Structures are given as structure tokens and as C-alpha cells.
Amino acid sequence: MMHAPSNKRTAAENGDGGIDVVLMRSLGNGEDLGPIVRYAFECGKPEALLHQLRNVVRKKEVEIEELCKLHYDEFILAVDELRGVLVDAYDLKSSLSSENLRLQEVASALLLKLDELLELYLIKKNVTEAIQTLKVCVQVSKLCLACNMHVANNRFYPALKILDLIEKDYLQNTPLKALRKVIDKQIPAIKLHIEKKVCSEFNDWLLHIRSIAKEIGQLAIGQAASARQGDEEKRAHQREAEEQSRSGVNPVYALDCEHIDEDSVLEFDLAPLYRSHHIHTCLGIQEKFCEYYYNNRLNQLNLDLQISSALPFLESHQPFFAQIAGFFIVEAQVLRTSRGLLSESQVESLWDSAMSKMKSVLEDQFSHTNTANHLLLIKDFVTLFGATLLRHGYQVTPLLEVLDNSRDKYHELLLSECRKQIGDILASDTFEQMVIKKEYEYNMNVVSFHLQSSDTVPAFPFIAPFSSSVPDACRVVRSFIEDSVSYLSYGGHINFYDVLKKYLDKLMIDVLNEALLSMIHTGNLGVSQAMQIAANIAVLEHTCDLFLWQAAQLCSVPLHLVERPHAGLTAKAVFKASQNAAYNALLNVVDSKLDEYLALMNSINWTADEAPEHANDYIHEIVIYLDLLISTAQQILPLDALYKVGVGALHHISDSIVATFLSESLKRFNLNAIIGIDNDLKMLEAFADERFQSTGLSDLKRDCIFRDCLVESRQLVNLLLSNQPDDFVDPVIREKDYGALDYKKVATICEKLKDSPDRLFGSLSNRNAKQNSRKKSMDTLKRRLKDFS
């Protein structure tokens, strides 16, 4: 038990040997002992570490003692030398004290002189500072004087530069406090005075620029109008060249060297604005001025956008749009040339506000405008306004959309005016062939509308195949095309040919054709008038291609596109149908007149005792009328129409003759009456053959000639005069000789055929075998027809 502590200490010493080695190595290398100390405390052995440190200290003390023992002799020698040096130092001190006393005695007089010198240097320094102060004050005073002169002469920018110079370089360095205080107080006052003065000048400029904005806008719009006129003249020359090339003439080209410098005309003074902006920038209140400028210009714009109620819009629209154009031309120039005064977003905001108001004004005014020309005048000026502002970078599409939206209304008004004009033209027309006595009349009424049949100028007086309403109507149509192109041009649509074609068709069909049909159906027309209307419609049908060609030229559409199949006007086919209506109306008039002559058949003795040797009186009247009719038609109508008139008239005569036999008023007739009708038909057939040849209708190579139109009445008469009328029931003979007859009609007519009244026993004595055979054949036919019924 007594050896236990000893064993523990030995174990501890053995266990801590590692710490001792590490500790010594760290001390030898001059390393930090912190990690070793931290390790000892973490292991719970601080006492062991402390013990090792004490051992280290004892070891170091031993080393120091050994080192001192080793160098003891050298140390003693060093102490002796040091004592010797101390003795020498005391000697030196004594010598220095004596020298110092001697020096003080010598320098006393010099010190008095030095004090006087220092005092003089101090005076010099004060004088120098005073001079510098006066120089600074003089410079500041000169700058203040120059600033006052600049302000008095309205040269604000150099005045502000001087104020800035004083503030930066002189104000803080001014030695006189009173002067510095005065200057410090006056600088803000001067700046405020400059600001007020510049604002006053700027306000005057605002009034001036608004007063001349209308003139600026009018000049700019005038330039746009001149440019448009130049473009139109170039297009006109191009169309003329195309027409010459089309007609085989070599076109002559010319170089147009005329040039207008647009910007040279639009000059207005922005110097006051630039000056105000620059001065406010120098004052450090640029944003305030920019806001002030924008608000004032916005107020001016709102005033400009107000419509004058004292004048009609037709009279006030040009000043209205010119004022707005001038406003935005100025703003475009300001945006382009002044840095930071306006932003693009601000200008766009102003333009959007103006655009909204202008759209509203135009829509309202267009809704109350009832004259096409007024709409066109407003539209033309608005498009010039749009072209002007588009050149200055503004978007005008919404404005053009308003014009496009009023397109239908404009054309409805234009069509209404054309309808009235054409109605007046047709009402004043006598529908007689136009007699042209002078060449200029020929060029004006015929050549200008390509209505001539050849390029050779005819002899005068020249009788045109149309009446005066045709060239007058053509002038209305041409004017309509030009007005329509004027409205559709420079709008939102680049290619408006199809739109123009649609409205042109509407004019030709709904206005011109309807007016002609109204004349045909409701007018109390004579034969020559009906013929002339039919001839006029044929001419108007021919003009459809001309008007479409003119429209294509004005729209700058290549002619090969117009000449394509199915590219023409629908009106051409409508006029074709209207020609048929005119021919039908003509035939109705002719039929009515023929009915007057055919009514004379009632005076025929249908039961005459003897057969007439000549034709009846009514047929002479009919032939005379037909001769006049065909002669008139030959002068007015083309061969096709002449053929239709002749065929229609002869068909009506034939049908009327057959209808007379079927009439209930005719109870009976005999063979002598049939012989008279046969004479009538022979006379009519001879006239038909002669006129068919003399009029040149034989050149048409038609299957049906004039004589063929009388076939029904001729076959009926042939049947009634036939010796074997019962051959009618033979299908072969009927198809060959009586194919135009209807057996029901034949049955009715044959029932009315009676012999002449019998004298007492007379008929028995005079009747021969041939008559008996014919009578039997007729009785057989009547019986067979009854069986068919």
C-alpha cells in the first residue's frame, strides 16, 4: 500500500513524456503553444502541463547560468570600458557648457535684430494677405458687374455661367464675410429673375407658334398636294404612253428634272424654345420646364381640336386640319432637334389624343354630310393631311380607316346624284339619232368614248347610231369613275381596282340600266324611240369595256389583267339582257300598231259570192307600215336586231291571221274569202323576200328567212284551198306540207268553212265533179278531226 503513489507518479511521468517532447520542440521552433494547452485541458491534465512548463523554466535558467559563466570575462571588460566612456562624457559636457555661455554672450545682440526682422516679416505677411483679399474682392465685383450687364442685356446664359463660376470658385473663397453674405443672398434672386424672364419669353413664343401653326400646316399640306399632282401627272403621261403604244404610236418620253426642296419652305423659329430649355437646364430645373412645355402644348392641342360651330364643317375643315398639322410638324421638329425636351412617348400620347378626337369629328361630320362632292373635298384634304404627317413620322392608319368606312356612303350619294343626272338626261332625250355637224362635236361625243366605227373622220353632218343621251350618260359614267378613283386613291387600300369595279358595275346596272328599263316599261314610246333605246343599249354594252379600261388606267392596273377572260363587267351581260327587253318592248309597240291594221280584217266579206282578184285593203296598210318599220330599223339597229324586228312582226301577222280564223266573232267563211287571204299572203311574202335580200339579212346565213315566219298562216290557207284537204290526216303529208299547223286549230277552223249560199237549184246545176270531190274530202277531214278530238 505504501508504494501505490509512487507507482502512480511513475506512470504519470511516463505517460506525460510525450507532452514534454512536443512542448520542447514547439518552444524551440517558436511555435504557438495554444494547441498544446488546449489539448492538456481537453485531456484533463493541466497540472501535468504546468509541471512540464516549470521543468522547462528550470532547464532554461540552468542554461542562462552556464552561458553567463562562459562569458564572464568579456562582461567585466565591457563594464570597465563603459566607465571610461562615462568619464569622457563628463568632460565633454563641461566644455559644451562653457562654449554655450560664450555663444549666448555673442548672440544677444543678434537676437534683438532677429525680433525686429520677425516683426517686419509679420507686417509683410499681413499686407500681402490684404492685397490678395482685395484682388479676390475686385474679381468677384467684376464678375458681379458682368453678370448684371448680361442680365440687363438678356444674355442669360453667360450670366448663369458667371453665377456658376462665382458659386464654385469664388463664393467660399471670398475673405470678406459681408460681401460673401450679400452675394450668397443675391444669386438665388438673380436666378429667379432669369427664370421669370425666360418663362415670359417662352410664353410669348407659345402664343406665336400657335398663331403660325395654321400657316405651317397649310404650307406643308400644299407641298403634299404639289407632290400628289406631280405623281398624277407622271401617271397621266404613263397612261398616255401606254395608250400610244397600244395604238401603235411610239411614245415620247421626257425627263422631269423639277425638284422641290420640301424642308426649305417649312421654316419656323425654335430658337426661343431652345434658349428657354437650355437656360432651365443650366438652372437645374430641366424636368420642371419639360413638364411645363408639355402641359402648355397639350392645352393648345385641346383648343385646336375644338370644332367651330360658327361655320359648316365643309368650310372649317381645312383650317382645322391645317392647325393640327402645323402643331405636330412643330412637335416633330422639337423631338428631332431638342435633346431631352420631349420624349417619343409624350409625342405619341399627344398624337393618340388628337387621332381619337379627329376620328370622332370625321365620323360625326360624315354621318351628317349628304353631298358626295362635300365628302370628296373633305376626304381629299384629310388624305393630304395624312400624307403630310406620315412624312413626319406619324401613323395615320386609323384616320384612313375612317375614310374607308365612309366609302359606301360616299358611293351611295354619288350613285344617287348620277341617278338624278341620268334621269334628267333620259327625260330630255327625244331618242332620235344624233346629228353631229362639227369635228369638235364628233371628237367630244364619239371619239372620246371610242364609239366610232373606224378611225377615219366622217363627212359632216354625221348621223350617229345613237341619241344624245348616250354621250351624256358616258360623261356621267366617266365622271363617276374619276370621282370614285379620287375618293379611293391615297386611302388605306393600295389596290382598289376591284372596289372601283364593284361600284362601276353598280352604277351601270342599278342606275343606268334600271333607268333605261324604266323608260322601256313605263314610257309611252313610239316605234322609232323604242328602236333608238335598243340601239343605245347596244352602244352602252360596247362602252363597258372602255369604262373598265379607263378604270384600270386610273388605278394603274396592267391592261393584260383587264383583258383576261371573265374579267369584264357584269353590266355587259345585264345590258345584253336589257337589249332583249328593249327588243321585246319594240316588238310590243310594233305588234300594237300592226293590231290596228289587222283590225281592218273585220271589214272583210267572209262569205263573198265571188273571189277577189287583189289583196285586201288592210294588207296594203300593213305592207306600207312594215316597209317604213324596216327602213327605220335599218338606219338605227344592227342587222341582228333588224332581223329580230322583221321576224317578230311577220310572226305576229301570221299568228293574227290564224287567230282571226279562230275568233268567235267569225262564225263562217267560204272559199272566196280564203282566196282573198291567199292574195294577202302572196303580197306579204313577196315583200318579205324582197326586204330580206335588200337589207342584207341574207348575209347572216340564218336558217329562218322572213317568208318562213308566215308558214303557219300559209299552210292553213294552202290546206283550206287544197283539193284533197283530208291528206292532213296522213302523217307523212302533214309533216311535209302542214307541219306548222295544230290539228285542234285546224278542226275549229274547218268547222267554220261553209259553201256559198245556195240559190234555188243553182248549186246542183253548177257544181261539177271536182267540187264534189273537194267537198267530200273536206267532210272526211272534219270527221277525222272530230275523231282525233
UniProtKB/TrEMBL annotation:
One GO cellular component, as annotated: cytosol
InterPro entries, per the entry: EXOC6/Sec15 (IPR007225), EXOC6/Sec15_C (IPR046361), EXOC6/Sec15_C_dom1 (IPR042045), EXOC6_Sec15_N (IPR048359), EXOC6PINT-1/Sec15/Tip20_C_dom2 (IPR042044)
Gene3D superfamilies given in the database record: Dsl1p vesicle tethering complex, Tip20p subunit, domain D, Exocyst complex subunit Sec15 C-terminal domain, N-terminal subdomain
Pfam families named in the record: EXOC6_Sec15_N (PF20651), Sec15_C (PF04091)
Chain intervals for the UniProt region annotation (Disordered): 227-247
Subcellular location: Cytoplasm, Cytosol
Keywords: Coiled coil, Cytoplasm, Exocytosis, Transport
Record domain Exocyst complex subunit EXOC6/Sec15 C-terminal: where: 398-752
Domain annotation Exocyst complex component EXOC6/Sec15 N-terminal: ranges: 52-221
GO biological process, one term: Golgi to plasma membrane transport
Protein family (similarity comment): Belongs to the SEC15 family.
Known function: Component of the exocyst complex involved in the docking of exocytic vesicles with fusion sites on the plasma membrane during regulated or polarized secretion. Involved in polarized cell growth and organ morphogenesis. During cytokinesis, involved in cell plate initiation, cell plate maturation and formation of new primary cell wall.
Annotated protein name in UniProt: Exocyst complex component
